[in-house]
């Protein structure tokens, strides 16, 4: 929750007019190394969604997260829809472990009926594009994949790309805002 990327994303989204709610899974709060069991992570996601609804009930609600947080959010949504959530946003969906390409971690996404936004770097070792692109197509018109050239899983770009991490982050958040606006206006 206090990682510089997460803080920067929340701050920049606020500047763009989107409220955010950051939270931690219990294992992170306790400085643990091993993630909590999925059931506890799903309950944590549900608790965060409930707090967001209580704090700002009149705003459109989107949920998601960076990497593991996004995957746990999607699993929670697939198990039982998150009340009031209009769409899910993934900042680097972890389709598989590095050097272990597979789309098995994504099968639950087919149970989700709300819009999905995948924001991915083209150098993300957690999401082989030869697997992710066809998966997103199979998910249908409710799924959107936006790629960021030369960005890795943390949206870092090499200097040779001619862009800075801050520029890529701005591109990522502008894509998120545009997508959220389109989803909100479709409802």
How would you portray this structure in words?
With 187 residues, the chain is of the alpha/beta class. The chain has a single domain, classed as Alpha/Beta hydrolase fold, catalytic domain (Rossmann fold). Helices cover 42% and strands 13% of the residues. It has 6 helices and 4 strands; from the N terminus they run H-H-H-E-H-E-E-H-E-H. The protein has helices at 4-15, 26-29, 38-55, 68-79, 129-139, 165-186, and strands spanning 61-66, 85-91, 116-121, 143-148. It has a 4-stranded parallel β-sheet with strand order 1-2-3-4, sandwiched between helices. Strand 1, helix 4 (68-79) and strand 2 form a beta-alpha-beta unit. It is globular. The protein starts with a helix and ends with a helix. The model has no long low-confidence stretch (mean pLDDT 95).
